[in-house]
Amino acid sequence: MLLWTPPLLAEEPPVLELDLAVQPVLSANATHDRYLPLTRYLSEITGYRINLVTAPNFVAYWQGMLRRDRAPDLALDASHFTGYRAKYLGYKILARIPDKVSYSLVTRDDDLVMDPDEIIAEPIASFSSPGMGAVLLDQMFPNVFRKPVVIEMSGTEDAVRALKEGRVRAAFIPSRLVGAFPGLFVVTTTTQHEAPALSAAPSVSIEARRRLSETLLNMQHTEAGRVALEQSAIQRFDAPVVGEYLPDAELLSAYWPMGPHRLAR
Fold it and tell me: Which H helix or E strand runs over 124?
């Protein structure tokens, strides 16, 4: 008598997990809340498990960026970080936010400062190095003996709170966030740089990069995608122009003279 043996069912391949790091322009909690809709949408459409990773400050973010055992699979960050990743760490830029970024020196609207020199030696709330804010603030005050006293903050909300409470004379924050906080006076604004872009580590497969890029670029064309973009305060994602990010890598390598760029010279 022949016994029928059911065929063995093939095991489903494990779900690909990818960590997405987002620069700490906001506090860790605020960053998580803002970008969770984006990660959920990417997970749903690609079938990958996208884990959102936050950092308490830019020092921790930079250290995680350089350590191979902690470097994220995906990163959404400023042009100098994106350019550095692409130029020295082998990351591929998948999509960019079509906008320009600048930083503004602000005071309370009852303390009108007309010239940045007026806050030399005064306390100013800013981000820790090597965030774009710290880099651009140093460019605004190139003389090491004529600088404000920088009080490092973990996010824009903390910087504005310190300003409103009188703990600092001024704050240096992303220009696009100025309108979210009433009662601020803009002293000056920096030159513009490319808006953040999303890039993938060399360890991410070509197929995964293709699927992620396609999903990002198509978000604006679906109802669910538009909702996720709006909830994450992103206008849309466009195809990247890599050459526009590479020059800003030098902002980071010149400001923080350590890391893989030293080996490339």
Answer: strand 123-127
- Digit-coded pLDDT (tens) for 82-104: 999 999 999 999 999 999 999 99
Single-letter amino acid code for the residue at 117: D
The CB-side HSE value for 135 (13 A sphere, CA atoms) comes to 23
Same fold, 17-100+194-258 and 103-191: yes
Which of these, 124, 155, 114, 198, lies nearest to 28 by C-alpha position? 155
pLDDT digits (tens, 9 = 90+) for 118-172: 999 999 999 888 889 999 999 899 998 999 999 998 788 999 999 999 999 999 9
Domain extent listing, the chain: 17-100+194-258, 103-191
pLDDT-derived band at 9, boundaries 50, 70, 90: low
Dihedrals phi, psi of 238, to nearest 5 degrees: -120, 165
Contact between residue 225 and residue 41 where contact means Cβ atoms under 8 Å apart: yes
CATH class of 103-191: alpha beta
Quote the CA–CA distance of 100 and 194 in Å, as a whole number: 5
The half-sphere exposure of 100 on its side-chain side, counting CA atoms within 13 A, is 6
Taking the C-alpha atoms of residue 18 and residue 47, their distance in angstroms, rounded to an integer, is 11
For residue 59, give both structure tokens. 């020092």
Q: For 17-100+194-258, CATH number?
A: 3.40.190.10
Rounded distance between C-alpha atoms, residue 35 and residue 198, angstroms: 12
d(CA 109, CA 117): 18
